[in-house]
Automatic annotation (TrEMBL):
Pfam family, one: RLMG_N
Lineage of the species this protein comes from: Bacteria, Pseudomonadati, Pseudomonadota, Gammaproteobacteria, Pseudomonadales
Origin species: Entomomonas moraniae
The UniProt record lists the keyword Isomerase: no
Record's GO cellular component terms: cytoplasm
Protein name: Methyltransferase domain-containing protein
Domain RlmG N-terminal: 4-183
InterPro entries noted in UniProt: DNA_methylase_N6_adenine_CS, RLMG, RlmG_N, RsmC/RlmG, SAM-dependent_MTases_sf, Small_mtfrase_dom
Residues covered by the Methyltransferase small domain: 203-373
């Protein structure tokens, strides 16, 4: 749903991406407003070079772009990139007025002002702070912000460890703003990517900073793995929301003739999946892409979709993303094609899938997780 955000910069009509009609969801929060109000009071030169980090739906960049022409947006989400472009266009701003830089690509400029939305994953924040260190000066203006409930002390410690001293603001509408003063702190060596081994198959897996369950294989996937067996009747398989690619990789190991498509909206997840595939299957053909789910997949082109869907988008918890992924899977599957879903038991995915698919089966379950197979 489109909602109006009025700031000292502009009055813009903004929406989340994917577009959701739920009236409680909007493309900005009080932390965005706090940042924009603060920046508007800075009286910065017109040629100031902006870097905006983790702008979930483009609210920050769209506003800044109404007054400044040198604006870069830096983040790990392809959906955030699409949201930025949609909101720029909807407000009659040139889509080229903001350059989106994926988290896996290097920064190339020195920035006068940096605006940071604190992300859910602190490893991502740490990696970003290490990367921007070489692109700021002692005079760079840096503000970070988050809703208080999403601002752990560890995030503040990371800002102080890698950038400099941090001053707290008073809370406004349950949002907190931090002013960070750059110090001459030595550039740290990034601890990312990290690696772990899946011993049953002797696999070493690369995991960049924003990968889900970066330190070890998640429990839900462990429940599914024994069922990813040889199946000569299933040849075209997609791992939807692939993370580091483990489900697709194990399917490929057990089915040497299968064709795999690995999809995720995280640039770091796709970088991890590509590195893992290359290490395990050097030379074997595969499609590994950052994408808005299966939106670009041809209808009725897949035999099977493997999916461990997220139940949140940024800090907002809900089943909207999962429902959308299920619909995309249904469109992409051939008649009698199968969708395999890993889910927490408390999520009512069985009923959601029954509305879309001809048959839904429970393959196995534990006290926490359930594996469902939906047949088109």
């Amino acid at each position: 749903m489109y909602k109006t955000l009025t700031t000292p910069f502009a009055s813009l009509v903004l929406a989340r991406y994917p577009l959701d009609s739920h009236p409680s969801l909007q493309a900005f929060d009080a932390a965005d407003e706090y940042l924009l109000t603060t920046v508007a009071q800075c009286a910065l030169p017109a040629n100031s070079q902006f870097l905006i980090i983790n702008d979930a739906f483009g609210a920050l960049a769209c506003n800044i772009a109404t007054s400044y022409s040198l604006v870069d947006s830096y983040g790990d989400s392809y959906l955030a990139e699409l949201a930025l472009k949609e909101n720029l266009a909807h407000n009659h701003l040139a889509t080229t007025s903001v350059q989106f830089i994926p988290s896996t690509e290097p920064l190339k400029k020195t920035y006068d002002i940096v605006l940071i939305k604190i992300p859910k994953t602190l490893a991502l924040l740490e990696e970003q702070l290490i990367k921007i260190k070489s692109h700021i000066t002692k005079n760079t203006v840096i503000y970070a912000a988050a809703m208080i409930k999403h601002l752990p002390k560890a995030a503040i410690l990371l800002l102080e460890k890698h950038i400099g001293s941090t001053k707290y603001s008073l809370a406004v509408k349950k949002a907190r703003l931090l002013t960070v003063t750059p110090h001459e702190i030595p550039l740290a060596q990034s601890p990312y990517p990290t690696y772990y081994s899946y011993q049953p198959l002797g696999l070493k897996l690369t995991n960049h900073a924003n990968v889900f369950c970066r330190e070890g294989l998640d429990i839900g996937t462990r429940v599914l793995i024994p069922y990813l067996k040889h199946n000569p009747h299933i040849q075209k398989v997609a791992d939807l929301g692939c993370g580091n690619g483990i489900m697709g990789i194990i399917w490929a190991m057990n089915n040497p003739e299968a064709e795999l498509v690995l999809i995720d909206e995280s640039y770091m997840a796709i970088a991890s999946a590509k590195e893992n595939w290359q290490r395990i299957f050097s030379g074997r053909a595969v499609v590994i892409n950052v994408s808005d789910g299966l939106i670009e997949q041809k209808n009725e082109s897949l035999d099977c979709v493997l999916c461990n869907p997220p139940f949140h988008q940024q800090q907002v918890i809900g089943d909207y993303i999962a429902r959308r992924m299920f619909k995309q899977a249904h469109n992409s599957l051939k008649p009698t094609g199968e969708l395999w879903v890993v889910a927490n038991r408390h999520l009512n995915y069985f009923q959601l899938l029954k509305k879309l698919f001809n048959e839904v089966k429970t393959i196995t379950q534990t006290n926490k997780f359930i594996i469902l197979k939906a047949i088109k």
